[in-house]
Amino acid sequence: MAKKEVAAQIKLQIEAGKASPAPPVGPALGQHGVNIMDFVKKFNDVTKDRVGDIVPVVITVYSDRSFDFITKTPPASSLIKKALGIEKGSSDAARQKVGKLSKQQLEEIAKIKLPDLNTDDIEKAMKIVAGTAINMGVEVEEF
Fold it and tell me: What domains lie within the chain, and their CATH numbers?
């Protein structure tokens, strides 16, 4: 089987199970001639068990207009917001704190993010997630 020629790679962040032909999905795929509804159905089917999470997706479009995609883990910031039950991070992270992340919560988020991080050490993954939390104005329990 000959390798297909890659025409484009599209990176989007879409809410799990809720992709639709509306922007950003429609315009991003339409300009490459991809069957938008085909992608929407497949994406929603793959992510139906993760509804409520924002799922980064990398779509590879081939020259024959076929495609495949890889879903990644939700961004650390959205996992932190979900764990703390907050709408958004602080606008002034240095002075205004919006919550506190326990060591256990930090470890759970790090375990979820591990496949997409450039480490396989849970302690290092926790430090990466802690850095994101601190930039959001979230205090992090010592670990």
Answer: 6-71 (3.30.1550.10), 76-140 (1.10.10.250)
Residue 62 three-state SS: strand
Structure tokens at 88: 């958004």
Contact 96, 137 (CB under 8 A): yes
Residue-wise pLDDT tens digits, 15-41: 999 999 999 999 999 999 999 999 999
Closest alpha carbon to 142 in 124, 130, 125: 130
Q: With contact defined as beta carbons under 8 Å apart, do 141 and 102 qualify?
A: yes
- State the residue for tokens 């997630």: 129
pTM across the whole model: 0.82
* Cα gap 2→87, rounded to integer Å: 48
The answer to whether 67 and 39 have CB atoms below 8 angstroms apart is yes
Q: Report helix, strand or coil for 66.
A: coil
Output the CA angle 108-117-56, nearest 5 degrees. Answer: 85
